[in-house]
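Exercise: predict the fold of this chain.
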Amino acid sequence: MEKRQNNRKKIWTAVGVALAIVLLLYWLTLAIWIDDSPEAAVVPETEQAFDY
């Protein structure tokens, strides 16, 4: 019985890892497709962030 539960854990772990890889590839493909640039992720200067 314990062997059966071990096999189920391995199967669900493999499913989870496969799903994570598929989602990562989808995310990267979408980012390339919409031409996402790294400049959008730049943190603004302190003066710009707290401009009173």
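Check your answer against the key: The mean pLDDT is 80.
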